[in-house]
Amino acid sequence: MKTTQNSSGDVRLTGIGKTYGSFTAVHPLDLTVPEGSFFALLGASGCGKTTTLRMIAGLEEPSQGAVSLGDQDVTHLPPYKRPVNTVFQSYALFPHLDIFENVAFGLRRRGLKSVKKQVDEMLDLVQLGEQARKKPHQLSGGQQQRVAVARALINHPKVLLLDEPLGALDLKLRRQMQLELKRIQTEVGITFIHVTHDQEEAMTMADTVAVMNGGRVEQLGSPADLYENPKTTFVANFLGTSNLIEAEVDSRSGEEIVLKAGDGKLVLPEARCAAPATTGGKVLVGIRPEKITLTHADDAGEIPVGRNRITGKIAATSFIGVSTQYVIDSSVCPDFEVYVQNIDRDARLVPGADVVLHWSPAHTFGLDAAQD
Ligand code: ATP
What we know:
Layout: E1 11-20, E2 23-33, E3 38-42, H1 49-57, E4 64-69, E5 72-73, E6 84-87, H2 99-109, H3 116-125, H4 141-153, E7 159-163, H5 171-188, E8 191-196, H6 199-205, E9 208-213, E10 216-221, H7 223-228, H8 233-238, E11 243-252, E12 256-261, E13 264-269, E14 282-287, E15 293-296, E16 308-320, E17 323-330, E18 333-341, E19 354-359, E20 365-368
Helix pairs in contact: 2-4, 3-4
The structure holds adenosine-5'-triphosphate.
Family: Belongs to the ABC transporter superfamily. Spermidine/putrescine importer (TC 3.A.1.11.1) family.
InterPro entries: AAA+_ATPase, ABC_SmlMolc_Importer, ABC_transporter-like_ATP-bd, ABC_transporter-like_CS, Mo/tungstate-bd_C_term_dom, P-loop_NTPase, PotA-like, PotA_ATP-bd
Protein name: Spermidine/putrescine import ATP-binding protein PotA
């Protein structure tokens, strides 16, 4: 994420906010979307992501703040004067026009006569060259959405805005279209800003994800960074599953924080702690389920020293394909979840078995226990 002077095509939001009467849909936010990136606004329904997108599109007047695109302040420009285009969940194709004419529409409206080369190129880009003479209703949902993308790209916008564009597709098609949109973005190289409530979708496609909550950007980062280093419990829980253990800070060395949880001791790297962590204070210690090793209590002596460890009892197991999910009863974390690859599975790990959960301190993160 750039914080310096706006380079040629970055989208920059400066203190932009939106209120409806006394209700604040988007609190003033500063955000820079680097030119050529695939950027996702991710959050639950009502968090303000569509309103933010619509302010970039010019479809919603901000209550405060500014939107600029490169060196151009576009805050008060109408949508059609901005070098952006939007793809909506409802494809909004013209039913009476064939696919070629749907894509050609933007060029014809500008008075261009010879459109064939450009339309053919665009149809090839979205892999619909063969379907040019069909009507929209003769295509599948995924194909119709690709026509909508081609139509939005034909006038070479600097930024393509996508508002839940895959929301109407079934899961399998949605997964295919995610990869397809990513390929198209890489090929055309323009900025895509994509709104979604689906964390897997944002993680699959985006270079940078802004996680929104209650009209604010809660955390901004690459998918891997958000997953590995969540800074709030909301982000930790919204992106995948987190086990959160309430622990008490015992000591700090400058590099590591040592915490007590029940009768156990946990070590957390200072750099991965987003909480104030005063000695004697509480921290939520987080660990992702797949980072944990599950060892039968009889073999506890074989666990290497230096690993964080918690004891518990297996409450339930369920087979989920390549791995098995275990739910563990532990005095420090209710419903501790652990995923174990089936090839590593120990036949003794059945409900009722006493176990030790252990993991590397390097995979541990710390969150503010006082946060709402
Ligand atoms: P969804 O995924 O359901 O579309 P969202 O995160 O995109 O949700 P927004 O559509 O941006 O959320 O809406 C944010 C908040 O602003 C919601 O509480 C919504 O009810 C409210 N809101 C949006 N538009 C208006 C409006 N025109 N008048 C009043 N409130 C509005």
